[in-house]
Amino acid sequence: MVDNPQENRVAPFKYWRLFELVLGAICFFSVGTVAAILHNPEWHAHLLRLFGRSWNTFVAQDVGSTNRGFLNGSLEAIFSILTVAVMIGYLHGFKEFRKHKAETAIIALLAIPTVTALVYGTQFAWEVANTAYNDHASLALRNKDLKQDRDSWEAKATNNALIVCTPVREPKLEVLIAGVDVNHRNVTIGSTDPTTASLQMAVKNVGSADAPGVAMRLYLKAGFQNPNVYDLDWQKVVSDEPNYPDEYYSANSIPANPPVIHIGEAWGWASFTIRLQKGASTTSAIPVMIKVFYGASKPTVVNFSVRVVKK
């Protein structure tokens, strides 16, 4: 079988035409893609920032210059081509040069952007992709941090909600006389001697937790004598209240080991005898303040007044 040289020359030409068609299709769809992107104005600001940051990185790192330096390099290439063309015309005659000036101009117009695109276009495209990746990685990391912060705050909010919703268990103490809470009340006590009044008290825990180490301090204003010798469970101490100069302390017969009052329990307390000094009025109400300590940061404070009536 004899090969046909003409057919062999035509076959490469067909492949080249196919390559041109494929390249043309790629360019057509690229232009269509750019047109579609430009059709969305909300993307413009983001694209400009992306290309701007990519350009700055490209000029600084890839070109190793500035915007003005890059422009100077491009102008240098253009003027170099023009200078070469003028020299060729001078050496071979401008008449011959003018015959091919259209071809020379077209070649120059195609060569300059082609070389620029090959040398710099690929590097700029790389910087665009690299900038987009770095932005994505930064945003992904930021989103991860924000998610961790959100989960942390959600956990704290859940714990706080549990703390808020969980009722606090704590003791609550009342001072009773004749089974009645005396806080902010007027108490009348009958006595055969109008200068003395015996306080028969009890301490009740109406809270939701036990009250450990309960002790009591009783405060009186001036004009009273010390408790008599039968009130051995009360010890006079230096007052810490300016308006009540007389203060007495009691741990209910167990000073070394004050009692624990459990929830709902009422403990009878050692009686305290109020004894007026001679000449004091027996008809005026006697103000009394009591502080009950049970291990909390602040004691329970009870204020009441006592009036003595003769039996």
List the domain count as a whole number: 2
Largest sheet geometry: 6 strands, mixed
Helix/strand/pairing class, anyone? alpha+beta
- What is the tally of helical segments? 5
Terminal residue distance: 151 Å
Question: Shape, please?
Answer: rod-shaped
Average of pLDDT: 77
Strand fraction band?
15-25%
Describe the structure.
The protein has 311 residues and is α+β, with helices and mostly antiparallel strands. It has two domains: 40-165, no CATH class; 173-310, Immunoglobulin-like. Helix content is 49%, strand content 23%. The strands form three sheets. A six-stranded mixed sheet has the order 3-13-12-6-9-8, with no helix packed on it. The longest helix has 65 residues, at 101-165. It is rod-shaped, with a radius of gyration of 51 Å.
List keywords for this structure.
Immunoglobulin-like; 13 strands; 5 helices; 311 residues; 2 domains; 4-stranded antiparallel beta sheet
Brief summary of the model shown:
This protein has 311 residues and is of the alpha+beta class. It is 49% helix and 23% strand. It has a six-stranded mixed β-sheet with strand order 3-13-12-6-9-8, with no helix packed on it.
What's the helix and strand layout?
Layout (H helix, E strand, L loop, with lengths): L4 H34 L5 H20 L3 H26 L1 H6 L1 H65 L7 E5 L2 E2 L4 E6 L4 E4 L1 E5 L9 E6 L3 E2 L9 E7 L2 E7 L15 E3 L3 E5 L9 E8 L6 E11 L1
Parallel strand pairs: 3-13
Antiparallel strand pairs: 1-2, 1-5, 4-11, 5-10, 6-9, 6-12, 7-11, 8-9, 12-13
